Amino acid sequence: MAEKRLMQGNEACVAGALAAGMDFFAGYPITPSTEIAELAAEYLPQRGGRFIQMEDEIASMGAVIGASLTGRKAMTATSGPGFSLKQENIGYAAITEVPCVIVNVQRAGPSTGIPTAPAQGDVMQARWGTHGDHPSITLSPSSVEETFGLTLRAFNLAEKYRTPVILLLDEIVGHMREAVILPAEGTVEVIDRVKPVCSPAEYRPYDAAMGETAPMPDFGSGYPYHVTGLTHDREGFTTSKPAEVDFIIRRLHSKIEMHLADILQWEEIATEDADILLVAYGATARSAKAALKMARKQGVKVGLFRPLTIWPFPEAALTQVAKGKQVIVPEMNLGQIALEVERIIKAEVSGVNQVDGEPLNPAKILQAIMVGSEVSR
Amino acid sequence: MSSLADKYLRGHKMPHIWCPGCGNGIITHAVLRAIDQLQWERDDIVIVSGIGCSSRAPGYLDFNTLHTTHGRALAFATGVKHGNPRLKVIVLTGDGDCAAIGGNHLIHACRRNIDITAIVYNNSIYGMTSGQFSPLTPTGSLATTAPYGNIDRAFDLCDLATAAGASFVARSTTYHANHLRDMIVHGLQNEGFSLIEAMTHCPTYFGRRNRIGGPVEMLKMQQEQAIPVQRAASMTQEQLEGKYLIGELHNQQMPEFCALYEQVIQKAGGGNQR
Ligand SMILES: Cc1ncc(C[n+]2csc(CCOP(=O)(O)OP(=O)(O)O)c2C)c(N)n1
Ligand code: SF4
Q1: pTM of the predicted model as reported, rounded to 2 decimal places
Q2: CB contact under 8 A, B268 and A218
Q3: Contacts of B225 (CB under 8 A, 6+ apart)
Q4: Which CATH number goes with the domain that contains A41?
Q5: Span A302-329, pLDDT tens digits
Q6: Cβ separation A48–B273 shorter than 8 A
Q7: What's the domain range around A122?
Q8: Among residues A3, A59, A154, A357, which is most buried (max CB within 10 A)?
Q9: Which ligand is in closest contact with the Cα of B18?
């Protein structure tokens, strides 16, 4: 039976991961993500799963990839400094197409920053943090309950598309406690990676057409194969032949881009009649929602576009919704998604930015709305 | 060799990238002979490496093979082993890969005593990037980044692994190829973390620059410098100057990580799952 509980965001993340079938976690403690590792250490062995505290975040990311290759559903969790350390191996998971989930509970940076303060400064890092031209799937929940759902979804997308998926929380969502209603165990959709059915002799680990993902066997299941971070051909062996290199890089992108209808999620609130459109994600979207209500009470027609999938960004939907509207992008950084929004709608947007380690409150967003409504009048 | 090659090499990946006279083939051959001697199932074996000339070996070997990022082979291998403890995990790594960028992972793999066998191809140099010094380059040697002689001291990798908690530690050389195979066999049989340091030669970047000569001279140098541990016991400190020990240097049974984790699962009550 579905149960109602008071839960912390980080706790909901672990619950969502377990619902998805997580059976491996490797991590290194860092505020404000540590509860995720602690709960994984407690719950995983109760279900026969495996936890390991590694010597650093680089090792954690490596161990997660290694475990995933044996068929485990593997996750790691960290915050800014650790997210930076994981980047090289996140790129490795991308090019080798190894499913895994990386949670980044964002805190104020750069560097050590303010460990206990919220921020949204890693949005672009989630997109471009690892070197080379690679796709990114990044999800951003705004509530504790949504953290459960999006963690589950992160695993499902990782398995379906053989790719690392980043779950971008922020300190507010990670540490906040809310009442949640979680679905009963076994009632949620769980996707597992497709295993090969051909004979081992015929198996080629990267033999997929544009937009497709090849089946993936577990190490030790009768399909010995080669995995390398060198650019490889359909058989998995290193190549520098331009046509083969071009194909694999383009296919890596196409397997995400050709399935946007499945991958993209967003929410639209009161956008139909809106003159002003707020674009907000994560904890900031909560303040945006509150500001929207306050503004509507004062007769200003405000709407909200909230991407749950940040990368790839829901471009087509935003273009549609933003038509003829004045756009305001509140975020806890100096304007990262604002740039993306400007790129998409090909018009200037105004930002409401907060980088002092404090949450972005509704009053500040309301103020920007009121200034905007003056201008448009 | 031919039957072993047919059995274990990915023939269609030949020719390999290694220079003529490189010692990497001798070590890789010793690894295959050790596996063959133990009659292990091919599909039970996962061979993991980092980045470097030596780390290219898995690409030629017909097993489950995982060529990872520079220095991180042991971290990935830890995930593989912990992910499925039934698998036999072998790490092939270079002196730079293992002792410099991967040094932290090395000591922690030793400390956990996780059942992985690491074979370190120690050619005293960074081969792949053409001849910079590594943490195992002898003091005074020339390297492209030590044009006036290396001022750094070298690790004794076997002492390091022993101190860090590895349960089996041995050293051999490419000159002593059969002995090397035997050390690898012992390492593979050990239930815990095993490190085998294989002294090898990079004629292209270490031999030439340090005017040691070609592969033959470098092998002869190994013959002269390597002293079996048993013989060393009766030698004086003076006689041991400039030499290194080969053989089984440390062998002490200790609880293995994955076995301990099984106990954690029992304690937590998850014993009946997966
Ligand atoms: C993160 C990172 N840093 C540096 C390099 C460049 N690099 C490739 S191989 C190598 C050194 C390899 O030396 P060693 O491990 O001794 O192996 P060998 O080539 O001698 O067998 C370096 C520095 C890299 N690939 N990745
Ligand atoms: S550079 Fe040195 S280590 Fe690398 S293949 Fe050539 S001889 Fe061997």
Answers
A1: 0.98
A2: no
A3: B242, B243, B244
A4: 3.40.50.970
A5: 999 999 999 999 999 999 999 999 999 9
A6: yes
A7: 3-182
A8: A59
A9: 2
